[in-house]
Amino acid sequence: MSSRIDQRLAEMQASNRCALIAFMTGGDPAPELTVPAMHAMVAAGADIIELGMPFSDPMADGPVIQRSSERALAKGMNLKQTLACLAEFRRTDNYTPVVLMGYLNPIEHMGMQSFAEQAQAAGADGVLLVDCPVEELDTSGEVLSKHGLQQIFLIAPTTSSARLSEICAHGQGFLYYVSLKGITGAGSLATDEVAASLRSLRTQAKVPLAVGFGIKSAEQAAALANDADAVVVGSALVERLATATNAAELNAAAAEILAPLRVAVDDTRRNFAA
């Protein structure tokens, strides 16, 4: 049985569309605004949501997402509450795939088995753990898989050929190609180089390819829309959502960031097909 992730990406591929994946940190800008923010992202054009599990030391994340975790934790957000927000989201949206993204420490504190059970019950579809590599698949992957959770793996420009082959052989849901050598939201994005890397990666990948870590503009998203199956926006969206104080402002913030990207990737695919 395919997951929501598989179904959504298959639908996008069938209609020759590039998916838009939107990241937010659970609990930011406030715990009570998490679910409204998720709905706002979907309304603005997100096809898949990455819901960040706030952590005190998010080593792969840049200052924008680091600060969002700090704000969420300061307001009492934790892993259990993040899963509760997902469960609430599922009461009115049982269609949009949700990937839980974060780090091992909070999960190990809860216990991998308990986490997998609770994540499945809450309605999660996948888990992306930055510090849980493919080498841990025999432990974490087995537990997650038993509970219907696909483990999403990151591939960096510096990933060795041997590790790349192993990741591609075990990829689930989609592979997340890190477009920059560094932290999220940092540096300038050389889209031509990234597009070439995606084309090379596609010769080995058995699942769709997503690209993120540096996409901030519609122009960047459009430049990658033909070579990626999905583009991910994180820091730019998190920074804009942080200013919202109610549902109406969340809707405006999500639309401001996501709507131009949605149009850009759709127009790129449409023009290319023509």
Can you describe this structure?
Helix 2 (34-43) packs across helix 4 (79-90), helix 5 (104-110) packs across helix 6 (112-122) and helix 10 packs parallel to helix 12 (247-273). The model has no long low-confidence stretch (mean pLDDT 92). The chain has helices at 4-14, 34-43, 63-74, 79-90, 104-110, 112-122, 137-146, 161-170, 191-202, 218-224, 235-241, 247-273; strands spanning 19-25, 48-52, 98-102, 126-129, 150-151, 153-155, 175-178, 209-212, 230-233. The termini are far apart. It has one domain: TIM Barrel (Alpha-Beta Barrel). It has twelve helices and nine strands. The longest helix has 27 residues, at 247-273. It is an alpha/beta fold. It has a nine-stranded parallel β-sheet.
Walk me through the topology.
Blueprint: H1 4-14, E1 19-25, H2 34-43, E2 48-52, H3 63-74, H4 79-90, E3 98-102, H5 104-110, H6 112-122, E4 126-129, H7 137-146, E5 150-151, E6 153-155, H8 161-170, E7 175-178, H9 191-202, E8 209-212, H10 218-224, E9 230-233, H11 235-241, H12 247-273
Parallel strand pairs: 1-2, 1-9, 2-3, 3-4, 4-5, 6-7, 7-8, 8-9
Helix pairs in contact: 2-4, 2-12, 4-6, 5-6, 10-12, 11-12
